[in-house]
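Section 3.1 - Work completed
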Amino acid sequence: MQHDFILLDRSGSMSSLWDEALSSINSYVKKLADDKIDTGVTLATFDGDGGVLKFDIIRDRIIPSTWKAVSSEDATPRGMTPLSDATGKIVSLARAGNYDKVAIIIMTDGHENASKELTVAQAKAALDECRAKNWQVIFLGANFDNAAQAANYGNAAFATASVAKGNLRAATATVAQSRATYSATGASMGFSEEEKRWLAGK
C-alpha cells in the first residue's frame, strides 16, 4: 500500500503565495492520477494561534482520480509556523496506516517559530524513522531558502528545494515525476542540482 501526505503551511505569511500553493498541490495530485499511481492522498494544513497548534485535515485518504481541487474556500492563511509540532502530527498519520511506500511533502515559507510539543530534534527523529523505512520526505521552501531548515530536520539536500514565487507548480511537477519512479522502483525522490537552480530562479 502507498500513500502521499502533503503538509501545507497556512501561516499568515503564505497569503501572497496561497493560490499558487493550492494550485501546485492540485497539479501534483492530477499527475498522480494521470500516471495511475496506486496511492491515496491526505492534505493537512497547519498554523499556530496563541501557542496552540492548528492542524486541519483538508482531504483525507483520497484516491487521486477522485480528488476535488482545493481552494481558498477550504483554508486560508493565518497564524504562526509550528513546523515541528505539525511534522509530528503528519508522521503520526503515516504511522497509523499499513503502508509500504509513503511520500511526505512539506511546503512552508518560513522558519519554525511556534511549536510547543516537539523540538526540532524530536521532529527530526520522527522523520528519521520514516526515512529508515525508505519513505520519502520532500521539503519545499515556498519563496524561501529552506536549505538550512530542512537540514536541521535531517533532510538530504537532494530532497530539498527552495522554490521561487511562480515556480511552485513546476516544483510539484518535478516531485510528481520522481514519485512515479519511486512507486515503480523504490528509487529515492528528489531534485537534480540543475532542477534546484531552475526552481530557485537562479
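Second construct:
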Amino acid sequence: METTIPFSGFYNSHHDSNLDYELESMFSDENGNSYQSIVEKASDLADWQAIHTDYAKKYTEALATKFDIRSLKFSKLSSPKFYNFETDRIFCTITQKEVKRIFKLVNKELLENEIKDRFTSRSGFISYYPNTIKEWPKALKDWDINHVGTLIEAYIKQANNGDFESSEQAEIFDGSSEVCNSILDENIKNIGRLYNLADYLRTRKTRKDNQELGIPSN
C-alpha cells in the first residue's frame, strides 16, 4: 500500500535549517565563524535535489524506527515547482498487514479528528474525501494513499503526545549534524578542494594570530 508521512518540507523549515547550519559548520574557523564565500560556492556546487532526496530517505528510516512503523519504505520525494500552496511530500510503501496493526492501535477519536481536520471543505479548500471515517471504504485494503497517510499521521501524533511539529521532525535524527554532514559531503561537487581552501584559511589565521602574539612558527 502507498502512504505519505508527516513532513514539513524544505521551504523555511527546520529541515532546511538543519542542512544550512551544517553547510556553514563544514566551512568555519575554529570560532565557528563561517567562510561565507566558500559556503556560497559549496551551495552553488551542491546537487540539492539529491541532497533533499537522501535526507528524505534517512528521515523515513528514522521515523519508522522511532515510532515502530514496520515495513515502511521510502518511495520518492515530490517537490512543487513553486512553494505558494504546497510543500515537499514524502511518499512511501507499507504492507497491508502493518496498516491493520496500526489501525488497531490508534485512538479512533483522534483518528476521526484528524480526518475531520484534513478533509473538511473550507474557504480556499474543497475536499474530495468524506470528513468522517464512517463514509470511508470499510475494508482497509481499499484505502488509498490519502486514507493511509491520515492514519499514519494520527498514529504518530498519538505516540508523540498529540502533535509532531517541524522542530520535532528535525530532531528525529540521533546526531543530526553527522547525518546532514554525510549527505552534503556526498552531493557537493569538488568538495575536497573546498575543504582544502577552508583548511588553508584556518592555518593562515593561526599563523597570523601567532605572529601577533610573538609565538614562533614551527
